[in-house]
Amino acid sequence: MRIFTLIWCGQLASSMGSYMTFFALTLWTWEQTESATALALITFCLQLSQIPTTLFAGLVVDRFNRKHLMLFGDAINAVATCVVGFLHLTQQLQIWHLYLVAAIAGSFMQIQVLAYQASMAVIVPKSQYTRANAMGATVHYGSTIVGPALAGSLYPAIGLSGIIGIDLTTFGIAFLTLLAAPIPNPVSPSKPSSGQREPLTRQLTFGLRHILRQPSLKALLLLSAMFTFAHDLGATVSQPMILARSGGDAQVLASVSAAAGVGGVAGAVIISLWGGPKQRIRGVLGGMLGAGLSKMVFGLGRSLPVWVPAQVSSSLNFPLLGSCRGALWMESVTPQIQGRIFSAKSLVFQIASLGAVVCAGPLADQVFEPAMQTGAIAVPFLTTLFGRGAGSGMAIMYTFCSLGLVLVAIWGMFNPYLKRFDASSDTSSTDSQPVPGQS
After folding, report:
1. Rounded to an integer, what distance in angstroms lies between the CA atom of residue 390 and that of residue 365?
2. Which residue in 253, 39, 59 sits closest to 153, CA to CA?
């Protein structure tokens, strides 16, 4: 785990800086527009650009040096951050600049993420897959604690440009630690002769065809895609909902973000020490169910005394969900083809997430919010639970999405193909090492 831990430390530093910048950009965008759609469009542009890249990313990751691809991705992200900082310093930054930069950065980010995921299998023993995925979750949730808290306190003093400067420093730390880490490429299978070379279309669809041929993987992909759509539909309006209900209070938003980090780090630490459940599909489904129930409580809340504990409870489930799901994919796919398989599943997740993001902003701004504030939704118990003030429509939308997460988990519990993962867990080795040539 030493090589993985070295890379992990650098990514933790970089992620904290990135969360600071994202939080500051959220505040800046809300100050300019007070629009949920404007915030959603940043995510939309980021994800839309990833879809065409993902079509080729799997082939790229399986054929080229994965360490070089990760370094290249870090460099592109640093350049994109510099562009935003320069535009802000020269007072030329506009909303559409963020859309463009997000689209450019997203194109290269997907290759970097896939290279990182596919590299884990060759530097981490199979028995540590769940633990390594849980440690990866601490990067996200630890940054959720520190990043928004620092950005919320520093933003009034140093502004967006100062926070971007901190972000660039953390990029440098990540780049240097990655440069120092030896990451071997797995031994590739022998290439077919030129006369037997597959058409490009078959190469690009290899990952999806491989998944669809295996009923359990196909069921896991469908389960995750449905969860992603329902989750991201609600998550896209969560920050505008909080800002609307708190009068645009940055400290309230930072507190909720920090609560998410506390829950996530606690969950990730537990999984890292425990190693996760032996029957990992139960961890996936249990995490989905717990997250959905907690988010329903969050949507019903109107202030920090409800939001904070509900957010902690929700985030506590995601390291269990994510680490068990990641371990299932890593165990079910050989390292030599993980780039293409992970690319295919990422593409499906991106399409589901993009569909959610596209719907979220207009639904919030043009349907739910106006309906609640004008009284068009005249259901008594809804107005009693959510009120009619700013953010009440988004709260209804968020709560319904959370209910969707619960229903997805229940569907998964009764899916016979997902139950096969339990059987395979009983017969798989718990202490196997990477194969020769992979470490």
Report:
1. 11
2. 253
CA end-to-end span of the chain: 11
pTM above 0.85, yes or no: no
Residue 301 corresponds to which amino acid? G
CB 241 within 8 A of CB 369: no
Which residue's entry shows tokens 């970089």?
A: 14
Q: What single-letter amino acid sits at 119?
A: S
- Tell me the per-residue pLDDT of 235-286, one tens digit each, with 9 for 90 and over: 988 988 998 888 878 778 878 877 887 888 888 888 878 877 888 899 999 9
Spatial separation of the C-alpha atoms in residues 269 and 272, rounded to whole Å: 5
Sole residue written with tokens 């507190």: 255
3-state class (DSSP) for residue 182: coil
Q: Which helix (H) or strand (E) holds 370?
A: helix 369-374
Model pLDDT for residues 156-215, shown as the tens digit of each residue: 778 788 888 888 888 888 888 888 888 777 655 545 444 456 677 777 788 888 899 999
What is the phi/psi pair of residue 261, to 5°? -65, -40
Burial of 57 (0-12, 13-18, 19+ CB in 10 A): buried
